[in-house]
Design brief:
With about 170 residues, this protein is an alpha+beta fold. The protein has one domain: 3-Layer(aba) Sandwich (Aminopeptidase). The protein contains 6 helices and 8 strands. The strands form 2 sheets. A 5-stranded antiparallel beta sheet has the order 1-2-3-4-5, covered by helices on one side. Strands 6-8-7 form a 3-stranded antiparallel beta sheet. β4 and β5 form a beta hairpin. α3 packs parallel to α4. The model has no long low-confidence stretch (mean pLDDT about 95).
């Protein structure tokens, strides 16, 4: 198990195939389906394919990706957070999602802020992007709280419009 970083309450680590049941749960949670979209991950086998073709492949190809967020004290998985390189964005993109029962407790801010600092420090990024659905008020509020600024919209495909946010690295 490769730990990427730890905060006061959370651990961010690489996904493993054993995390497939959690992926089924997270990717079928109401907010994931509403704001990110149905990835058609209904079985453990689907989740294993998702892990192989998504996060695990990204670790090898890019050196980063989406990671599992777990409670530091118990190891209970509560979400995912990480960095992505999307073809339609100029900068690395931070992505995050939590199970509904862990939303509104400060975990999203805690892990996203640490991941952002990881992008700026470890990967020497000067800017990091974030995208969210137009109506995802919680995500918009979190990005604003983290110091992201709105930068218009992007259209990753013909039918989707997303808000684009950018955060600049703090000067030394």
């Amino acid at each position: 198990m490769t730990i990427i970083l730890q905060t006061e309450r959370l651990t961010l680590r690489q996904f493993m195939m054993a995390d497939a049941p959690f992926i089924v749960e997270l990717l079928n949670s109401p907010n994931w389906l509403q704001y990110i979209g149905d990835r058609n991950i209904k079985t453990v086998a689907d989740a294993q394919s998702y892990l192989l073709q998504g996060p695990l492949l990204s670790y090898v190809v890019s050196g980063f990706g989406l990671y599992l967020v777990e409670l530091k004290d118990s190891g209970i998985p509560i979400g995912m957070c990480g960095l992505l390189k999307r073809p339609y964005l100029q900068y690395l993109d931070i992505g995050y999602a939590l199970l509904p029962e862990y939303e509104g407790l400060g975990y999203g801010y805690e892990i996203a802020t640490a991941t952002l600092q990881y992008a700026f420090g470890h990967f020497q990024q000067k800017h990091v992007a974030a995208i969210t659905a137009l109506d995802n008020q919680r995500s918009i509020a979190l990005l604003n709280k983290m110091g992201f600024r709105g930068d218009g919209t992007v259209n990753p495909d013909e039918k989707t419009e997303l808000l684009l946010f950018i955060k600049d690295a703090e000067p030394l």
